[in-house]
Amino acid sequence: MNNSGKNDPLPVKSRENAAQMARDMAESLAGQYSLKVDDSTVNKEFRDCFGKDHEHATDGRFDLTYSIRAKIPGNEHGKAIRAMRKKLEDSHYKISGYREDNSDALMDAKGGRDDLFVSVESYMPATELVFSISTPCFLPPGVKQQQVSAPAPNATPTVPVLAAEATAPEIRFPANPFG
């Protein structure tokens, strides 16, 4: 049973498999308009996962931001992104941002089977599209998931006030209401 708690089981995936999943998504979207992604433009960044209340575990969990570009004729951005949108919607992604023009396009979507965040947008020069994919948090294979404890209620430390500090501050300009 998954109740979306901080200690619910994380999906298991290696860094290599996560990068391949992101690449496959980019290639699939590019293929909707017969575009080819350019390997020389890959940028991938793995980060430690943090919980919504900044909880941190030391079990190796990670997320990935992956980007890659593809060449496209400068006046076909709108047509290309329209085809990609259809593919994402058919794969149960929710489109959260969308703009289409012949030479300038943008689309943001989240969801699908792997709960990815996908962004496709025109890149300068206007002859490229950049595909950015962000993954959810994954646990590496063979690692026992660490259970993260909740922060203590009212974890803000209290500082005692010394009697000398409790006196009213000196007012330098009595006629000025701001002191």
Instruction: Tell me roughly what share of residues is in helical segments.
Output: 10-25%
Q: Which oligomeric state applies?
A: single chain
Going across the major beta sheet, what is the strand order?
1-2-6-5-4-3
**How many helices in DSSP terms?**
2
Question: Strand share of the residues?
Answer: 25-35%
End-to-end Cα distance: 61 Å
Largest sheet: 6 strands, antiparallel
Q: Report the uncertain regions.
A: none
DSSP summary, beta strand count: 6
Shape: elongated
Mean pLDDT figure: 85
Secondary structure class reads alpha+beta
The ordered string of helix (H) and strand (E) elements is HEEHEEEE
| Rg computed from alpha carbons, rounded to a whole number of angstroms | 24 Å
What do these coordinates show?
- The protein contains 2 helices and 6 strands, in the order αββαββββ.
- The chain is of the alpha+beta class.
- Strands 1-2-6-5-4-3 form a 6-stranded antiparallel β-sheet, covered by helices on one side.
- A hairpin with a 4-residue loop joins strand 3 and strand 4.
- The longest helix is centred in the first third of the chain and has 17 residues.
- The termini are far apart.
Task: Give the tags.
alpha+beta, 6-stranded antiparallel sheet, 17% helix, elongated
